[in-house]
Design a protein that fits this description.
Keywords: Calcium, Cell adhesion, Cell membrane, Glycoprotein, Membrane, Repeat, Signal, Transmembrane, Transmembrane helix. One of its GO terms (cellular component) is plasma membrane. Its main location: membrane. It is a single chain. With 748 residues, this protein is mainly beta. The protein has 8 helices and 48 strands. It has a 5-stranded mixed β-sheet, with helices on one face. The N and C termini lie far apart (126 Å).
Length: 748
């Protein structure tokens, strides 16, 4: 035997990287590297291959993204060098493929650009051939004729190509030789060279070796034990040499796939056939189970069309005498729509300005469906009516773009739901939510709540008095919505009587004002936001000056009446019987004081006439009235003039009252003449105790126009604004009626 010297691959080839950069289509980079490269090993200089500088890679935020969930590469933006993130194992990455290619994309921003890349992971001889069983047992009849073939378990080598399984060899012996079978997978068969004799040798032990084509080659061995059986005339025979079956990938466990059958005409134990898998991969043995007695093959694992589309099984039928036959079972896995599309977000702009033009790229994503045919075809759509659209690019990549003008004041953020759906019969879908915020742009000027603000202020005000407020709002956000206020200076006018708080819009009077000098003035207020450039709006501020006036409850006059009776008959109460404007004045029930019921305004009539009624508590009650004439004036000088001008004017009821007084006077004179003789002696007593006499006002007060007094007096009273006591100023008596003058108090 020739000794095999094993040299570690790293001593021969230090994982030399072969980089082949090709251009496929517009921009496609192709590289290749050997597996098992150490972490951070050099792959390629992307900057050099693309003809850009490393600074451009950094400024455009270049990054590399591998397809699938695993990211195998890292891009250094400072040097432009592409390296591997972790050690790559081809057998793990591509377990079912002879050619292992990793696809990746290089993404650029500003502007968005995608460059496709392919990385072929080359195999190195890092795996030795391995037999599924270290010890194999074959039972062979001693009557087997020379030239008979006996299949052996196939060795497996995870490497591919020349590094894969290449040859089998058999240790020296006197009975068997080795025949190699060719095809997709190499296998070995024992060939009987010399007749066996159980009586001479019950067992034959062989050493089977499998060797790959690596440099240096790797090998694996297994012990083959041959048990020599007594003669058995017939071997099992299968009904078919090859069984072709199909099974759906979503088949449940224990589902029957196929039943193989082999017949043996022998009797007894030589005619009983048992079944077993041979030359079948370990993965297929995990997915299918074979009933040794019935030959039924059932599903035992989860089939996956995307993993393996076809399984090749070899079934061996062995009778009780050790004779065996073989058949092949080809199982085709049918694809079902069991994979929903996957949305992989590659690039996202979380915030865009509201003045972004239509067709602005917001996000970039890809859609992948592992199914095949229509089950793997996908389509994407945006849920709802939103100002966004999807644009397909290439390789199932989509761009999310705006398709209309945006307005942050209407919608500040968008919750975009993207639905990806396949074309399968039972359609599957998946969703991805993307949140996009709209950043504010200063596109809205402030707005005043009113175009004109009218504020009233009393004269002789205190300095820096707050008299009102203006208010403006801005629909923008942040500093663009912060409003500041200022007065607009008019040309030729250096100062104004008001000021405004720039932050809250409060308006202040700077100095005391006089109604006789300034009755009203206007200024322009400007509201500006904090944007750049700033937007503004203007409103008119009108200030009206109001003179001082009589307040509610101010004393106007006091009416006094006396009743000569005693007790309850002398209890008097006052009420306002008639008034030009009833709501302006009121009379005290027991005091007779006439006061203002509310503030006097400019809208009130300048002249008022009041009729005050006084009533006692007798049965029947008796009453008398007094008339007050009131004039609203601005001062005492105007009061004298108003009284003089209005004295001749009589109340519309004055003539009727005069007639009544004359009639009462005549009746009184007649009564007094008749009773003069009877009461002459006791006139004083009669005046004190006369029953049923009328209540009368004192001589200094206004006499009742409805009573028995011969005439009435008029109080000429001037009442100035601000008077808070009950003092009267008697000017002169007026006939036939009294007039009371009150200073007018306009109110705004």
């Amino acid at each position: 035997k020739k000794a095999n010297t094993i040299i570690h691959p790293r001593q021969v080839v230090l994982f030399v990287l072969c980089v082949c950069v090709c251009q496929s289509g517009a921009e496609t980079l192709r590289y290749s590297l050997a597996e098992e490269m150490e972490r951070d090993s050099f792959v390629a200089n992307i900057a050099k291959d693309l003809g850009v500088s490393p600074s451009q890679l950094a400024s455009r935020k270049a990054r590399v993204v591998s397809e699938g969930n695993e990211q195998y590469f890292r891009l250094n933006l400072n040097t432009g060098v592409l390296t591997v993130k972790e050690t790559l194992d081809r057998e793990v990455i591509c377990p079912q493929s002879d050619i292992c290619t990793l696809f990746f994309k290089i993404f650029f921003e500003n502007p968005v650009q995608l460059i496709r890349g392919e990385m072929e992971v080359r195999d190195v001889n890092d795996n030795s051939p391995v037999f599924p069983e270290k010890k194999m047992v074959l039972e062979i009849l001693e009557t087997a004729s020379p030239g008979s073939r006996f299949p052996l378990e196939r060795a497996r080598d995870k490497d591919v190509g020349s590094n894969g399984l290449q040859n089998y060899s058999l240790g020296s012996n006197s009975h068997f030789s080795l025949a190699l079978g060719t095809g997709k997978a190499k296998y070995a068969e024992l060939v009987l060279q010399r007749q066996l004799d159980r009586e001479q040798q019950r067992e034959v032990n062989l050493l089977l070796s499998a060797t790959d084509g690596g440099s240096p080659p790797r090998s694996g061995t297994a012990q083959v034990r041959i048990v020599v059986l007594d003669a058995n005339d017939n071997i099992p025979v299968f009904s078919r040499e090859v069984y072709e079956v199909r099974v759906a990938e979503n088949s449940p466990p224990e589902q029957l796939v196929v039943r193989v059958a082999a017949a043996d005409p022998d009797e007894g134990s030589y005619g009983r056939v048992r079944y077993a898998f041979t030359q079948t991969s370990e993965r297929s043995r995990q997915l299918f189970e074979l009933n040794a007695a019935t030959g039924e093959i059932r599903v035992s694992g989860n089939l996956d069309f995307e993993e393996t589309k076809k399984h090749k099984l070899v079934v061996r039928a062995t009778d009780g005498g050790g004779l065996s036959a073989h058949c092949k079972v080809h199982v085709e896995v049918l694809d079902v729509n069991d994979n929903a599309p996957e949305i992989v977000l590659t690039s996202l702009t979380a915030s865009i300005p509201e003045d972004a033009p239509p067709r602005t790229v917001v996000a970039l994503f890809s859609v992948r469906d592992r199914d095949s045919g229509d089950n793997g075809r996908t389509e994407c759509a945006i849920d709802g009516d939103l100002p966004f659209s999807l644009t397909p690019t290439f390789d199932n990549y989509y761009e999310l773009r705006t398709n209309a003008a945006l307005d942050r004041e209407r919608t500040a953020e968008y919750n975009i739901t993207i639905t990806a759906m396949d074309w399968g019969r039972s359609r599957l879908s998946s969703r991805e939510r993307i949140f996009v915020q709209i950043s504010d742009v200063n596109d809205n000027p402030p707005e005043f709540t009113q175009d004109v603000y009218t504020i009233s202020v009393k004269e002789n005000n205190t300095p820096m008095l707050r008299i009102g407020k203006v208010n403006a709002t801005d629909a923008d956000a942040g500093k663009n919505s912060r409003v500041s206020y200022a007065l607009v200076r008019e040309k030729g006018k250096e100062q104004t009587d008001v000021s405004i708080n720039s932050e809250n819009g409060d308006v202040y009077i700077l100095r005391p004002l006089d109604y006789e000098e300034v009755r009203a003035f206007e200024v322009t207020v400007r509201a500006a936001d904090g944007g750049s450039p700033a937007l503004s709006a203007e409103a008119l501020l009108r200030v009206l000056l109001a003179p001082r006036s009589a307040e509610p409850g101010a004393l106007v006059a006091k009416v006094v009446a006396v009743d000569a009776d005693a007790g309850q008959n002398a209890w008097l109460s006052y009420e306002l019987a008639k008034a030009t404007e009833p709501g302006l004045f009121r009379v005290g029930l027991h005091s007779g004081e006439v006061r203002t019921a509310r503030a006097v305004t400019e809208r009130d009539a300048p002249r008022h006439r009041l009729v005050v009624l006084v009533r006692d508590r007798g049965q029947p009650p008796r009453s008398a009235t007094a008339t007050l004439a009131i004039a609203l004036v601005d001062g005492f000088s105007e009061a004298h003039l108003r009284v003089s001008e209005e004295a001749p004017a009589a109340d519309p009821d004055g003539r009727l009252t005069l007639y009544l007084i004359i009639c009462l006077a005549c009746v009184s004179v007649l009564f007094l003449a008749t009773a003069a003789a009877a009461v002459f002696v006791k006139v004083r007593r009669a005046r004190q105790s006369m029953a049923g006499s009328l209540p009368t006002f004192p001589k200094s007060a206004a006499e009742s126009s409805a009573g028995s007094l011969p005439r009435s007096y008029v109080y000429d009273i001037c009442f100035s604004a601000g008077t808070v006591n009950s003092e009267f100023r008697f000017l002169r008596p007026l006939f036939p009626s009294a007039e009371l003058v009150l200073k007018e108090s306009p109110e705004r």
